[in-house]
């Protein structure tokens, strides 16, 4: 049986509110796709604290090393600090993570977790679910839990104009300092 695959942003919820959102949607596994699963503003979602809070209620799995939106390698950033999704989506690590999601979504009800409340501004939608759709996952199987508890099928999100490969990148710069321009010789 193939389960729906959900996405959710922890936003500024309490840990209990987040778990309630997940339970109401029948989630059994939370897959944390944050590259750095720590928050100064919402410490209840630091990796260890969230894992403890989920214990006995949901299974918590961190996959930010393979599916995170802020790779460590500067080669995946443009000169303004935007993540270049096309080359990132072809890496062995990312594809291995996508394969694990696909296999496990056949057995478990999974929610992909990141911090951003709005899925259309987050790599969980802009990168991960786009790749899943490209690999054949139907739009109506991908569902986004919004901050207010509303659930939207992927096809119900505002339509994004398909981007050329060289323009497929994070909407905001995610580096504290811009990457060096590889052509600058610096």
Structure at a glance:
With 186 residues, this protein is of the alpha/beta class. 28% of the residues lie in helices and 13% in strands.
Descriptive overview:
This protein has 186 residues and is an alpha/beta fold. It has one domain (5-175): Alpha-Beta Complex (Protein-Tyrosine Phosphatase, Chain A), CATH 3.90.190. It contains 6 helices and 6 strands; from the N terminus they run βαβαβαααβαββ. It has helices at 15-24, 47-54, 64-67, 85-89, 92-104, 123-134; strands at 5-9, 29-32, 59-62, 110-114, 142-145, 151-153. Strands 3-2-4-1-5-6 form a 6-stranded mixed β-sheet, with helices on both faces. Helix 2 links the parallel strand 2 (29-32) and strand 3. The longest helix has 13 residues, at 92-104. It is globular, with a radius of gyration of 16 Å. The N and C termini lie far apart (53 Å). Residues 178-186 have low confidence and may be disordered.
Terminal Cα span? 53 Å
Overall mean pLDDT: 89
Q: What is the C-alpha radius of gyration, as a whole number of Å?
A: 16 Å
Q: Count of DSSP E strands?
A: 6
Low-confidence stretches: 178-186
Going across the biggest sheet, name each strand in turn. 3-2-4-1-5-6
**Which structural class should the secondary elements be placed in?**
alpha/beta
Quickly name the level 1 CATH class.
Alpha Beta
Task: Give the overall form.
Answer: globular
Tell me the number of structural domains. 1
Tally of helical runs: 6
Sequence of secondary-structure elements: EHEHEHHHEHEE
Please bin the fraction of helical residues.
25-40%
Strand residues, percent: 5-15%
Q: Biggest sheet, open or closed, and with what strands and sense?
A: 6 strands, mixed
**CATH-defined fold name:** Protein-Tyrosine Phosphatase, Chain A
């Amino acid at each position: 049986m193939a389960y729906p695959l959900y996405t959710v942003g922890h936003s500024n919820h309490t840990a209990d509110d987040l778990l309630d959102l997940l339970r109401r949607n029948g989630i059994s596994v939370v897959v944390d796709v944050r590259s750095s699963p720590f928050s100064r503003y919402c410490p209840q979602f630091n990796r260890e604290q969230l894992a403890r809070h989920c214990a006995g209620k949901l299974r918590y799995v961190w996959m930010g090393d393979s599916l995170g939106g802020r790779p460590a390698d500067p080669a995946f950033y443009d000169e303004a600090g935007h993540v270049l999704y096309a080359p990132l989506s072809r890496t062995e690590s990312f594809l291995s993570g996508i394969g694990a999601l696909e296999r496990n979504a056949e057995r478990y009800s999974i929610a992909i977790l990141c911090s951003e409340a709005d899925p259309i501004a987050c790599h969980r939608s802009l990168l991960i679910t786009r790749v899943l759709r490209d690999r054949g996952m139907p739009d109506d199987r991908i569902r986004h839990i919004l901050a207010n508890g509303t659930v939207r099928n992927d096809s119900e999100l505002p339509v994004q104009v398909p981007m050329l490969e060289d323009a497929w990148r994070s909407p905001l710069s995610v580096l504290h300092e811009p990457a060096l321009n590889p052509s600058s010789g610096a």
